[in-house]
Write a structure and sequence with these properties.
single chain, mainly alpha, three-stranded mixed sheet, 7% strand, globular
Length: 270
């Protein structure tokens, strides 16, 4: 009887995971998405609203206008891509919002639903719209690729184990709230989301280049931007990424340079 039960659980789990598979736009990578879009958006919006109530808005009018301008252009290009590729239904998941926050932190993020925040510390490294487009394209790509949903699904799997996955998912809303507090946890350092995996970061680099190129920005500025970030953060080509969820800057820049020739096909037609 135990053997039969065990076989049933394995079959059930396999069927559940197969039915929960999705694929990332542009890259086609298969991913497990156990959480519905509505649950992800509800959880992330709740965390975002709590954060934005107390986050100090920047008084830098020029910087704020720059973030809004470039953000809207990236958002428009992203929605154009989704329409062109029969993914128009995904657009309903986004209600774009752009904020510049007063903080010296070298950081930016885009919550599911298109809530974008840039910190003044990062903006100080940006010399023109094209470099900011590198940042915003990357962050928007995380949202379009549903990396948050994937991370929440991974957390659910890790917490429950395959043997009791069916029971955990029968009360998924409660389980989702639990993992959301981890994935979207607001921490003392204003860090809104835990770092994505190295795979997610490199995927967002590639997708972000496509979106910024479609928006009319020059993708080669991604190299100079990440070189600035590397210098500002004090990293070096010899730094290991073994214990980090973010790729080594030198490896990231090398990968971006490999992507650049492909970006020509995404440039707006003149």
């Amino acid at each position: 009887m135990r053997r039969i039960t065990g076989v049933f659980i394995v079959i059930f789990t396999a069927a559940l995971l197969l039915s929960s598979c999705g694929s990332v736009p542009l890259t086609g990578r298969r991913q497990i998405l156990l959480v519905s879009d509505s649950e992800v958006l509800t959880s992330s919006l709740s965390q975002y609203n709590e954060y934005i109530k107390t986050a100090p808005k920047s008084t830098n009018a020029t910087g704020t206008a720059m973030v809004t301008r470039v953000g809207k252009n990236i958002a428009a290009a992203t929605e154009a891509y989704l329409r062109q590729n029969n993914l128009e239904s995904e657009i309903a998941n986004f209600a774009w919002e752009f904020n510049l926050i007063k903080s010296d932190e070298l950081n930016a993020f885009c919550m599911p639903g298109g809530k974008i925040v840039v910190y003044e510390g990062l903006l100080a490294l940006v010399s023109k719209d094209d470099e900011l487009a590198v940042v915003l394209g990357h962050e928007v790509a995380h949202a379009v690729a549903k990396h948050s949903n994937e991370r929440m699904s991974q957390e659910l799997l890790a917490q429950t184990g395959a043997g009791i996955l069916d029971a955990a998912l029968s009360t998924k809303s409660e389980a989702v709230r639990g993992v959301a507090s981890t994935v979207f946890g607001l921490g003392a350092q204003m860090g809104v989301m835990l770092p994505y995996s190295r795979q997610h970061e490199l995927e967002a680099d590639y997708m972000g280049l496509v979106f910024m190129t479609m928006a009319g920005y020059e993708p080669s500025y991604a190299v100079s931007f990440w070189q600035k970030m590397s210098s500002a953060s004090g990293s070096s080509a010899n730094d290991s990424d073994f214990l980090s969820t973010h790729p080594n800057d030198a490896k990231r820049i090398a990968q971006i340079q490999q992507y650049l020739p492909e970006m020509d096909k995404y440039r707006p037609k003149k």
